[in-house]
């Protein structure tokens, strides 16, 4: 499927100067020293064989310990090829052609894309940015005989909305009533700035809640393709089987390096949260001064900004607006179309050592007269 993003990338390439590119969400900090050091010690030839299909048992035990409230064991965890590999194996395990999966709109574009590729039917229900409160009620009107699961990210990509305990309990309760799995994608769990702490750590013993995690953002290890799925043992067996059939086990060297996870101090996680918050704060300031309605999100890596008043109300062509901005001013924003809604744009964290200058440049370019 063609992405609106591709038009923006092409337009940025046509811009004659340096672009201000806020398209891709990558961490703005280094991986923990403890994990890098462990990689140096364990990532050699001794880690060159296939590992067990569900991941290294020691790593599964560490993740169970870290992610649970004491009630989880390695049998609740499968190590996956990033969160995305986990989602793919999970959807492959849960859905048959024609089955439906409900997701919020806007949402991470991979959900509907993967569900469709597997022959399933994604069913998008609009989320109004109220910490999923209204959504948790509304989305059940879409449940039908072929619905198998509900998937959402919290903190959300792209909106930054985070699920509170009350909404999580409500969703679990209602999913259980309808016999659905609730897939909670926690790729940005390390970046919650506000709102209640979500107690997703206790996996529901009656197999409703499934949690998907990732080392990509929270440990700055996007390129290692390290993720995990946490669920009841029966589901873990199904996901492990699907992963084995589709992809084989995830790479062994990064898994061995991840065994140093318990040594990473809490100060690392505090520091990265501060770093991300600081960049978002500065970005919000620049966008507001340039006349946009920007706010610090409750969590995650992104600003999600309403630009409907800048567009034609009848055909709010967000992609066209972003392409023009890219071509004429060299500024790259991701159009809402790819996330399933018109009239909104997503801005990712500014990258690199010169990020402050980049944000200033962004403000200058957006504020310049036509
Ligand atoms: C909500 C969400 N889930 C999953 C992923 C994929 O993470 P990974 O790199 O672990 O596959 C991303 C990446 O941007 C994401 O935004």
Please tell me about this protein's structure:
With 370 residues, the protein is an alpha/beta fold. The chain folds into two domains: 128 residues, Aspartate Aminotransferase, domain 1 (Alpha-Beta Complex); 215 residues, 3-Layer(aba) Sandwich (Aspartate Aminotransferase, domain 2), CATH 3.40.640. Strands 2-8-7-6-5-3-4 form a seven-stranded mixed sheet, sandwiched between helices. A three-stranded antiparallel sheet has the order 9-12-11. Helix 4 crosses helix 9. The radius of gyration is 21 Å and the shape is globular. Pyridoxal-5'-phosphate binds next to helix 4.
Short description:
The chain is of the alpha/beta class and 370 residues long. It has 13 helices and twelve strands. It has two domains: 128 residues, Aspartate Aminotransferase, domain 1 (Alpha-Beta Complex); 215 residues, Aspartate Aminotransferase, domain 2.
What is the secondary structure topology, with strand pairs?
Elements: H1 4-14, E1 20-21, H2 33-42, H3 57-67, E2 77-81, H4 82-94, E3 100-105, H5 110-117, E4 121-126, H6 133-138, E5 147-153, H7 165-178, E6 181-185, E7 209-214, H8 215-218, E8 226-230, H9 233-246, H10 252-257, H11 266-289, E9 302-306, H12 318-329, E10 331-332, E11 334-335, E12 344-348, H13 355-367
The structure holds pyridoxal-5'-phosphate.
Pyridoxal-5'-phosphate is lined by residues 25, 82-84, 108, 153, 157, 185, 187, 214, 216, 222, 227.
């Amino acid at each position: 499927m063609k992405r609106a993003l591709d038009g923006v990338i092409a337009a940025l390439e046509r811009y004659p100067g340096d672009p201000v590119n806020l398209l891709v969400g990558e961490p703005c900090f280094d991986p923990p020293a403890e994990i890098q050091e462990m990689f140096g010690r364990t990532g050699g030839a001794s880690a060159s064989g296939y590992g067990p299909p569900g991941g290294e048992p020691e790593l599964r035990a560490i993740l169970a310990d870290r992610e649970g409230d004491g009630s989880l064991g390695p049998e609740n965890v499968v190590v996956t090829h990033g969160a995305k590999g986990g989602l793919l194996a999970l959807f492959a395990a849960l859905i048959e052609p024609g089955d439906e999966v409900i997701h919020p709109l806007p949402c991470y574009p991979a959900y509907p894309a993967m569900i469709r590729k597997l022959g399933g039917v994604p069913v998008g229900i609009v989320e109004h940015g109220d910490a999923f409160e209204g959504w948790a009620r509304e989305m059940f009107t879409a449940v039908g005989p072929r619905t198998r699961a509900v998937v959402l990210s919290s903190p959300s990509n792209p909106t930054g909305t985070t699920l509170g305990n009350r909404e999580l309990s409500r969703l679990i309760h209602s999913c259980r009533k309808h016999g659905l799995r609730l897939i909670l994608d926690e790729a940005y769990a390390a970046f919650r700035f506000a709102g209640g702490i979500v107690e997703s750590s206790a996996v529901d013993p009656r197999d409703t809640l499934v949690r998907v995690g990732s080392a990509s953002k929270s440990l700055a290890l996007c390129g290692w393709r390290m993720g995990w799925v946490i669920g009841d043992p029966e589901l873990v067996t199904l996901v492990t089987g699907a992963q084995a059939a589709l992809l084989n086990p995830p790479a062994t060297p990064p898994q061995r390096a991840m065994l140093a996870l318990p040594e990473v101090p809490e100060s690392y996680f505090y520091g990265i949260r501060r770093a991300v918050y600081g960049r978002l704060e500065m970005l919000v300031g620049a966008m507001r001064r340039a006349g946009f309605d920007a706010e610090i999100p409750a969590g995650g890596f992104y600003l999600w900004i309403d630009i409907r008043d800048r567009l034609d109300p009848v055909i709010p062509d967000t992609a066209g607006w972003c392409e023009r901005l890219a071509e004429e001013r060299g500024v790259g924003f991701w159009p809402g179309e790819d996330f399933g809604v018109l009239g909104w744009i997503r801005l990712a964290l500014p990258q690199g050592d010169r990020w402050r200058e980049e944000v200033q440049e962004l403000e200058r370019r957006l504020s310049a007269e036509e």
